[in-house]
Specification:
426 residues; alpha/beta; eight-stranded parallel beta sheet; four-stranded mixed beta sheet; elongated
Length: 426
């Protein structure tokens, strides 16, 4: 009972204390909010007065769905402002569209009718952000006349082989030959550019990054004509192909819709370095010959002639009819180990795409299937295949080596033959 008597009178001082705290702290906050709102309204009125000269029009604030902002339509004529003063009737520029709600604000989104912000914020710009009369800023990409390639060796091979018409050589303005390990190749680039009368333009690293799409340009970006595929519709007979290749069976690489430019560039590089006779691609659903391919090939794309066909299965069937053998790269029980393949006549190696491999019609056009012997991995289910460019390099090494060995053994002269042909009889 004593506790109840002492606790009951304590409620009234506590409630009074809470009220005093609320009036002391919340009332000044409310005054600040009202002052801020009055300042915002004054700024809107000032902006509305200046809209004729500046071109900006403010929409009304609030959360209402009405098209009227404080008694005025923002897309109509104004007769008077909020202070009652008469103003000249002039059309507002870029007012809110019919679909906007309230005035919009920075927290809203672009309106579909007028191009201004659309939302429920407290006031927003009513006209479009784009100013058609504003002059467009210069961009280094606007000066490109053809196709750009970047990197030291792609640029060097392009200038050496002359398959492209060079328009301009863009060089890093802070280039220092003393700090470069490829100073010899760099000097050769400048010498070829001088001999070919190619304009040399010094640019900043930022501009070179824009030209190369932030790829490793090594300080050189060449602007030149486009480089495309050459059309091929048939293979020559096997006998003629052997004679044209000095008796060595030629080995071609055919790509069945390889779409990754990095893989395409790596295959071109391996084909050029390992001694493949040519590279054949599909006219459709294949990676284009662009700067990425040239860079991935280390400039081999600028040297090696590349061919394409519109109907790869038909071309392979014609090649088989002309005495060629066609090997398709595929893993399966019918495939033979590449080390067991003997290349004693013209051969075409067909590589499938990254996702589905060889198409059914292409597979049917092959005379046989070859595969790479894989190692005994602990978990073969996690990674069970090689990249197409890596597989092409391994298979090419085996086939080209077999072709050279077969040509050398066919020209070996036995001792008995030497006696019968050239040695005098006893």
């Amino acid at each position: 009972m004593d506790i109840a008597r002492t606790a009951l009178p304590c409620r009234f001082p506590l409630r009074k204390l809470t009220t005093d705290i609320a009036h002391r702290h919340l009332e000044p906050l409310g005054q600040q909010l009202r002052t801020t709102r009055r300042a915002s309204d004054s700024f809107r009125r000032l902006a509305a007065d200046e809209e004729g000269s500046s071109g900006w029009a403010w929409g009304g604030g609030g959360d209402s769905d009405s098209k009227v902002s404080r008694g005025r339509r923002s897309d109509d004529y104004d007769s008077e402002d909020s202070g009652g003063r008469e103003r000249e009737r002039k059309p507002q520029r870029g007012g809110r569209g019919e679909a906007s709600r309230g005035g919009g604000g920075p927290s809203g989104r672009w309106g579909t009718d007028s191009g201004g912000f659309k939302g429920q914020g407290g006031g927003g710009y009513g006209n479009r952000w784009e100013d058609e009369s504003r002059e467009k800023l210069p961009n280094v990409r606007d000066d490109v006349q053809g196709q750009v390639i970047y990197g030291v060796f792609p640029v060097l091979n392009a200038l050496e082989n002359g398959r492209r018409k060079p328009y301009a050589l863009n060089v890093l303005e802070s280039l220092d030959l003393k700090k470069r390990k490829d100073a010899g190749a760099v000097k050769k680039i400048f010498k070829l550019a001088q001999e070919l009368a190619v304009p040399v333009v010094k640019l900043s690293r930022l501009d070179l990054n824009l030209l190369s799409d932030d790829k490793p340009h090594q300080g050189f970006v060449l602007d030149g004509s486009d480089l495309g595929w050459s059309h091929k519709d048939k293979f020559e007979p096997a006998e003629k192909a052997m004679a044209d290749n000095n008796g060595v069976p030629p080995v071609w690489v055919a790509l069945d819709e390889v779409t990754d430019p990095m893989n395409l560039g790596a295959i071109i590089r391996s084909s050029f370095c390992l001694g493949a006779t040519g590279v054949l691609g599909c006219a459709k659903n294949s990676a284009p010959l662009n700067a990425v391919v040239s860079k991935a090939s280390a400039g081999a794309m600028e040297v090696m002639q590349l061919y394409s066909t519109g109907n790869l299965p038909s071309l392979l069937q014609d090649a088989v009819a002309s005495g060629w053998q066609v090997f398709g790269a595929a893993a399966g029980p019918e495939a033979v180990e590449c080390r067991d393949c003997v290349v004693d006549k013209p051969t075409i190696l067909v590589m499938g795409s990254e996702s589905v491999g060889l198409r059914t019609n292409v597979r049917r056009s092959c005379t046989g299937m070859i595969k790479i012997e894989m190692g005994d991995a602990k978990d073969a289910q996690s990674v069970d295949s090689l990249n197409v460019s890596v597989a092409a390099g391994i298979l090419l090494h085996q086939l080209v080596g077999s072709a050279k060995r077969s040509s050398s053994t066919s020209h070996v002269v036995t001792p008995a033959a030497a006696i019968s042909v050239g040695a005098p009889s006893e």
